[in-house]
């Protein structure tokens, strides 16, 4: 009776090593070849999924909301985090003889060691940068003592049903408002003149990032960039997820808002983009990237009928020029003491010039 060796639930990488010690005395069937090749090609399926989702994103997925178009990318993230599969494979004694291959040189271990070394070095580099930035935030930031700002912040926490204590701080280490922190969370404000209306949208935007757990997704993508540093699709995935994240955040912030409120929110984003020319941080979420700005503005206004679309088109057209001015809505001034090192805007009306390279 023909004997069989059962290999159950063995990772394909281990199976490949084991098969080096078998020498076939019979031609493999087409089914055997397909099974083996399918395991080999699983390493690139994530790249194919990215391309497939990109195609759907520009066609079918356009009818869904921004939340769907954002969280659908978790499929790719999970696939990349857990690339190994387990399976059952049967090896027949009639097909294989146990003959050690003694003279064959195998470089797979050397390649694996080099790869793991690069991954570990990249991970250590990013982790050190994170620790340095966190140290700067803790050491060179301070609490906001302005009563009106704190009242506004506390009201937003209640409105969004957030019970966790998220520290609100000023810091010179950033140029745009950002949400930061893996365990201890911070909302960081740069030393700029903000009025209450702008602060309302800024703080709400960052708190929505907290509620959506966007920073954790951001860190997962950074980890994947270390592991799959050789795959250009990972860098494309990083850009897509970041942009989808901001679109989703805009959608949640502006849900049920009037056209004037959307205009005010867009105005705040434009101001932040102008200030972001020197600010690029992988460890925060915030209003600091210029990419796909026209798309964000258009999506803000497209659900507001013809008038909203017209405003969006005008804003997108103006953004193609080097300079333009967009007047913000009149908002209540903030009384700020002279002792505080970081003033907020005390004027009743504000305008600014935005430079987009």
UniProtKB/TrEMBL annotation:
Coiled coil: none annotated. The chain crosses the membrane at residues 71-91, 111-128, 216-237, 308-326. InterPro entries: Beta-lactam_resp_regulator, Peptidase_M56. The keyword Heme does not apply. Keywords: Membrane, Plasmid, Transmembrane, Transmembrane helix. Residues 43-92, 108-297 form the Peptidase M56 domain. It holds the Pfam family Peptidase_M56. This is Peptidase M56 domain-containing protein. It comes from Clostridioides difficile.
